Amino acid sequence: MSSHEHVEFSIDRERYTARITLRRPAAENRVTTAMATQICDFLDVVEQDDDIKVVVLSGEGEHLCAGWEPQDAWRQYLDAPGGSVRKHPSQRARLIAADENWWGPRGLYTRLLRCRKVTVLEARGKCFETGLYFALCCDLVVAGADARFACPRWRNVGVDGDMALLFATVGLKRAKELMFCDVAWSARTALAYGLVDYVADDVAAKVEELANMSASIMRDGIVTEKYAVFASLDKMGIGHSFAATTVVGASLSNIHFQPGEYNFLRDLRDNGVDEALSTSRRGLRDV
Amino acid sequence: MITTSVDNWCGVIEAADYGPLSRHEAPFARALRQAVVDLSDDDHVKVIVLRTTHGDFAGAGTPPPVDTTEVLTTWHRDFAASSAVYQAVCFSKKVVVTEVAGHCSAAGSMLVLCSDLTVAAENATFASPFTDLPEANFVLAALTMRLNRAKSWLLRGSTMPAAEAVSVGLVNQVVPADELAATTRELARSVTGMPLDGITMSKMLLQAVLDGHGVGREFDLADHYAIHRWAGLNAGTVQG
């Protein structure tokens, strides 16, 4: 077992399975840039280990992941090249951070989407923002009855996620409902829309069943099928969409607010993380 | 013919019904296109609602054949071009909501496909746009309903009741007819909570992705579909 500060990694060689577990339950497993990097480092290990066929991703506690850690989301721009040259990070720093950490070839979402092993997600409680993208990028998703899927950050600044992947998974109009209407999908709705594969009372048991089933497939079969998926992803424009997302996402960090519009960053600065998150998610409606 | 109003970030376009689009009535198409463009450019608008004041969202109608030379000029300009009515809706900078009651003929279904969100009354029905309209966009249908369902709609030329439309993802909500306007208002209100810049940039991102999927190229093919369809009719050689 290997454990970084907030991400745990273990390998069960008898079952050909690796586990990556978010361990920040006090913060509802909100993901930081450092955690994203750690997950990518563990995926490096997985990719190089021929004995691993399956990766299970989960979160400790009630929630898979309640989104980005807001203060860290801004700090990533400051830490990128060109990020601290003036009062505000440069546009290139925002682009580089979005590319390197999340959407680019070495970013978390691309790495997970293009992992050569079978990826299985255990989705519980809040699956927001990064949690939603875990569901989109993993091969198989098992949700608990209490799971909720949403991207409340889009409400604050606009849509900075990958659209092609969301469209391909749930369809155009349902994707737009998530983009524009301040809603969270219940596990049952997510199942009906095709975002999750199973809703289970015993999530861990169902995940284990799927992991064991996947691990029974021969290695060549898994990798061959995954490369067939990668080819389809390219044809569906996922890579193009990731690139557009990087550009627009970086630009959205520069938006101007009209009088009366809610400014999340100002709320964050004035009232702290918990209150800003609570205020910004107050209108989230379960469907 | 068409009226517009703006209140609390919401622009509303009202017509008696959108059936004239099914009959390829160019003045109606131009007026609707202009209303959509004007509200899209209005900095006091975040959401555009397409609503009807009478029973059906788009009454039935079939377009008359158009001569080949007109297809490539006037018809193209009004129904297929990047500046024409459907692309004005599809690529609007604001969130477009269609509020559908009663029958939705071919052109009505095209408006539904081009809009971002759709609320339908329980009595709504959605005719396939592919039977009569060369400008019907199959890529949009496949992205919205998924490939197999879009193919079925195209090949069968069927009309879907509201309950089926919501189950395949063509509409977002189905409500009793007397709750339709209130539901649309609530949906629009939920959208207007986003910053104006956020909505505009989100729609720009959406445009890039739709272009990547070939939605624009499918509109470009409308001229070819129209020439094939009407060349036969003009010559009187099409059967059945």
From TrEMBL, chain A:
Family matches, as Gene3D superfamilies: 2-enoyl-CoA Hydratase, Chain A, domain 1
The protein's matches in SUPFAM superfamilies, at most eight in alphabetical order, are given as:
ClpP/crotonase
| CDD domains for this protein | crotonase-like (cd06558)
Q: Which domain of life is it from?
A: Bacteria
Give the UniProt keywords, A-Z: Isomerase
**One GO MF term:** isomerase activity
Tell me which InterPro entries the record gives: ClpP/crotonase-like_dom_sf (IPR029045), Enoyl-CoA_hydra/iso (IPR001753)
The record's family statement is: Belongs to the enoyl-CoA hydratase/isomerase family.
Q: What is this protein called?
A: Enoyl-CoA hydratase/isomerase family protein
Which organism does this sequence originate in? Micromonospora zingiberis
UniProtKB/TrEMBL annotation, chain B:
Q: Which organism is it from?
A: Micromonospora zingiberis
Q: Write out the similarity annotation.
A: Belongs to the enoyl-CoA hydratase/isomerase family.
- Report keywords, A-Z: Isomerase
Q: Name one Pfam family in it.
A: ECH_1
Q: What is this protein called?
A: Enoyl-CoA hydratase/isomerase family protein
> Which molecular-function annotation in GO is an example for this chain?
isomerase activity
Superkingdom in the source lineage? Bacteria
PANTHER family named in the record: ENOYL-COA HYDRATASE, IP11341P-RELATED
